[in-house]
Write a structure and sequence with these properties.
Blueprint: H1 3-14, H2 18-25, H3 29-36, H4 44-54, H5 58-62, H6 67-73, H7 78-117, E1 126-131, E2 134-135, H8 137-143, H9 149-157, E3 169-173, E4 180-184, E5 189-197, H10 203-235
Antiparallel strand pairs: 1-3, 1-5, 2-5, 4-5
Amino acid sequence: MTLGEKLRSLRSTSGWTQPEFAQKLGIEQSYLSKLENDRSIPSVEIFDKLCTAYEITPDDMIKDLDKDYVRQKLMHIPIIANAANSKHEVAKGKRKAAVIVCSTFILVAVLFFFTAHLELLSSNKQWEYSSSGVNFEEEVAHCNKDKSIQECKLKFSGNPRSVMSADIDTFITSEYQGRRIHEKLEIGYRNYHVTALPDKRSTANNIFLIFSVFLATLGILGLIVEARFYRIDKQL
């Protein structure tokens, strides 16, 4: 839309004829006709009168106009030039903030990736500790003072030929606790022996990688969109 088209629309909405509105502005009808048909550009004084007569702000007057038209035809009017420059600065500030946010997303994504890859907060290694049973040798030795060795073994381990029960126990952990763990129980003790398992990415590291991909995607897409808008703005 051009300024002439906007002026015709405003006058039509207000219900004024050209002669009536020209008289209200204190200008010739022929000059108003030239303004409404884009054969003339208003001076600063006339532009102010137009805004006052239609009871609208300069921003409202030009908000529907083609940007390229405003830049080429109306920038001689200080209030329009200031408004355009102000909008440009606001848009520039928003673009800068968007670039900072997108760049921050990418940096955080890289941080998450290396946190997971280097296992900084959670290890991917797994260790299996297994015990073949509970050892009752001390209890059997104490019991053997009063009873036969077979009776004592049977009493504690359930097997007259062994001081160990067949109660197998196994647990898997991501923390290495040594080649052997000695665990004292209320009755007897257990010895656990370690076996290294294949690495398996921990839940925490999986979460870090998911967030890494998500934030990196957001950041890169944001920068692509921002670059596109920047090129469009430069063409306007």
